[in-house]
Design a protein that fits this description.
- With 412 residues, the protein is α/β, with parallel strands linked by helices.
- It folds into two domains: 4-220 and 397-408, Glycogen Phosphorylase B (Rossmann fold); 224-394, 3-Layer(aba) Sandwich (Rossmann fold), CATH 3.40.50.2000.
- 45% of the residues lie in helices and 13% in strands.
- The chain is built from 18 helices and 13 strands.
- It has helices at 24-39, 58-61, 75-84, 89-92, 97-109, 123-135, 150-161, 168-191, 200-207, 224-228, 250-270, 306-310, 327-334, 343-346, 363-374, 377-394, 397-400, 404-408; strands at residues 9-13, 41-47, 65-68, 114-118, 141-145, 194-197, 216-217, 240-244, 275-279, 296-298, 314-317, 339-341, 358-359.
- The protein has a seven-stranded parallel beta sheet, sandwiched between helices. A six-stranded parallel beta sheet has the order 10-9-8-11-12-13, with helices on both faces.
- α14 links the parallel β12 and β13.
- α13 (327-334) crosses α16.
- The longest helix has 24 residues, at 168-191.
- It is globular and about 70 Å long.
- The N and C termini lie close together (11 Å).
Length: 412
């Protein structure tokens, strides 16, 4: 490793302060930031409505830490931009003139070998900074980590919502965003020096936008020992289904609404003793009625999902929209849980139906798979053991993070 004074500088742009790493993108961003800060002089830009925690390691990891509150956009402004802006909603979501000015001030006094952009929301800042540096004669390399093939996420949301007349407004929104995101992602990826995807499927979707582009795959990962070593507390006398996720996130909201309306009644008829626990912060107003259903509970925010996952007889992933890979699935695998997922929920992981988990895409098949696992402890244990072995070999952070060397090998 180079001496500190010889380290190249990297400007890292995060849509959310990545500590504490308590949810999907933050976990990934923190791990990759740690790798970068061990090898480069890093300045970090991020948004947060909370102050930097006193115990946060971030101030010691980075040189400059630039944090501003999330900008506020009214529904009226979002509606206008949905119909009249050429840019997708994601590219406008975090625009803040104060943040742009702070980045400009930093760029005027610093030189950067690379700008690392985590997610589409931060792309406008990254390319603005690169243009400022280029005017000074610097040829800064842009690394773009596309957490999802975002245009594909909106495409799948459109194809899901368009089948339901009550969701027509959501379908219209997703149709417009799908088209805008395809153009915007094409523009970003064609200008970036390196592009990162989280799965081979996402990489292929991104590569289809830009002929000749080669996307480097760095999957989402999981701290396997952190989950594996948590004591198992499954109560076979009171079978429990568990779902975890940020519960104001559209794919998660759709997943639970579909599950409780189309799958849960069938499971409950066959196993009246079963419970469903939905774990995650900020439950959407559409989910308020779930907690009043017999056997169903919503936890809201919890500081640690492991006690809830440990209590699960079956971990359910009834996702119908989205892209990328799901950290919730990796976490459940690391805890040795029996899992039932849709194909969408497990895509990008390389799992096989009946080997590491059960896949089911219709309400009938999903209910059958859940009931089969509730009735067969030996099957639950077999799938859970195979899942733990699978995730340990392929998705522990100790395996994932070194892949960053493929991205940054030429930066000095």
């Amino acid at each position: 490793m180079m001496a500190p004074r010889d380290k190249a500088r990297v400007l890292v742009l995060h849509p959310h302060l990545p500590y504490p790493p308590s949810q999907g993108a933050d976990i990934r961003n923190y791990r990759l930031l740690k790798w970068l800060s061990d090898r480069f002089e890093v300045d970090l830009v991020a948004f947060s409505d909370e102050p930097v925690a006193p115990d946060s390691p971030l101030p010691g990891m980075v040189g400059k830490l630039m944090v501003r509150p999330f900008p506020k956009r009214s529904l009226a402004r979002r509606a206008l931009s949905t119909f009249f802006s050429s840019r997708p909603d994601m590219a406008l979501r975090l625009f803040d003139r104060g943040m742009l000015e702070e980045i400009a001030s930093t760029v005027r006094s610093s030189d950067y070998a690379a700008i690392h952009i985590e997610g589409i929301e931060m792309a406008p800042y990254g390319f603005a900074a690169a243009e400022m540096l280029e005017r000074r004669g610097s040829r800064t390399k842009i690394v773009f980590d596309d957490h999802n093939a975002e245009y594909m996420l909106q495409r799948s949301a459109f194809l899901t919502d368009v089948r339901n007349p009550l969701r027509f407004p959501g379908a219209v929104y997703s149709f417009l965003q799908w088209r805008k995101l395809a153009r915007y992602e094409r523009s970003i990826c064609s200008k970036a020096w390196k592009v990162i995807g989280v799965s081979r499927k996402d990489a292929e979707a991104i590569e289809s936008l830009v002929p000749g582009l080669s996307v480097i795959v760095i999957p989402n990962g999981v701290d396997v020992p952190y989950y594996r070593d948590y004591p198992a507390v499954e109560d076979t006398a009171e079978p429990t289904l568990v779902f975890t996720g940020k519960m104001d996130y559209r794919p998660n909201v759709d997943a639970m609404l579909w599950f409780v309306s189309e799958i849960w009644p069938s499971v409950k008829r066959r196993r009246p003793d079963v419970k469903l626990v939905v774990v995650g912060q900020k439950p959407h107003p559409k989910l308020r009625g779930l907690g009043k259903m017999p056997g169903v509970s919503l936890t809201g925010f919890v500081p640690d999902v492991r006690p809830f996952m440990a209590s699960a007889s079956v971990f359910v992933v009834p996702l119908r929209m989205g892209s990328g890979t799901r950290l919730k699935v990796l976490q459940a695998m690391a805890m040795g849980k029996a899992i039932v997922s849709t194909s969408v929920g497990a895509e990008g992981l390389g799992v096989e139906n009946g080997r590491e988990l059960l896949l089911a895409d219709s309400p009938e098949d999903f209910a059958d798979a859940v009931t089969a696992l509730l009735d067969d402890e030996a099957l639950r244990r077999r799938l859970g053991a195979a899942a733990m072995e699978f995730v340990s070999e392929r998705f522990d952070w100790s395996v994932i993070v070194p892949k960053m060397a493929e991205v940054y090998g030429e930066v000095s």
